[in-house]
Amino acid sequence: MPGDHASVLAALGLRRDSEQLYFRLVPVSGHTVVGVARLVQERPDRLLRLLTPLLERGLVVLDDERVLVPPLADVVSELVLRESRQAATAAARLGELASAVPHLVAAGTRPHERDLSEVHPLDGELSSGGDPLELLQLMLRSSRGDMLWLRPDAWAMARESRVSELLAEAMATGRRSRAIYPVRALAEAPDALRTRAHLGEQVRVMSEVPTRMFIFGDAHAVLPEPLGFADEPRVHVRQRSIVAALSMWFEVLWSRAAPVPELESGGQPDERRFLLEQLMAGVTDEVIARKLGIGLRTVRRRIAALMSDLGVDTRFQAGVEAARRGWL
User: pTM here?
Assistant: First the structure.
């Protein structure tokens, strides 16, 4: 029953004789092994053997030949903490193993060699190292067609200026470049966006860009392994069907991304203008928050500050006044 120490000890897996020994030890805690043995009427060597299950669970501690019995609540608390840590470790390990299962299953779906008439390796590799700019230049020279970019954070790279130079050289030959950035780039990297747009690149933004990636025509696609914001290891794919599939994915994202008209007209990208355009389009605060990648309260504070700057009371009036001032 609740509060019954005997039921707690049973839950810890103790046998009845170990439970009885525990309760006989509680009042003599602190005595030596020899003294305790005399009090419980056991030989010292046999007492030590009987103490084994209690020692394993921390219910009894031997300290300098003295038998100590800690408070039961402390012992149970420590056991729960230990078990919870072990459970967390086991859960993490099981999660790793579970994630590996699909790869094992996928590997087992290969047809038997005797059933195949022709086998060729896919064109591409997983690699690290090398000069990224030199590799980029080589890929540009060995490809034709559009250059497609997913750029979640590329403006922060030290080599960004050199990448822009290579881009300018390629676009001077008539190639088209299109890039998708996260909306936060409007506030964090307006100069980088303006530089790329000035070169002739078409720029669009969306709430979040899930990974770095670039595609050059139908010849090259490069993305990190695993997907994300790392430079290497990188997957360089030249297999045309895979490059085409990644290009189709880019086009889907491009269709969902929003253009930045002020960049196309040579102006400065402005988060304020973006916010006004969303208000004029009737977009809700929740959707604006998702697009900007910020909290709902932050969006509402910025809208309130914008309306205060314009000296208006409604969102409709904000649009009218912004247009009058040439902000739109």
Answer: 0.55
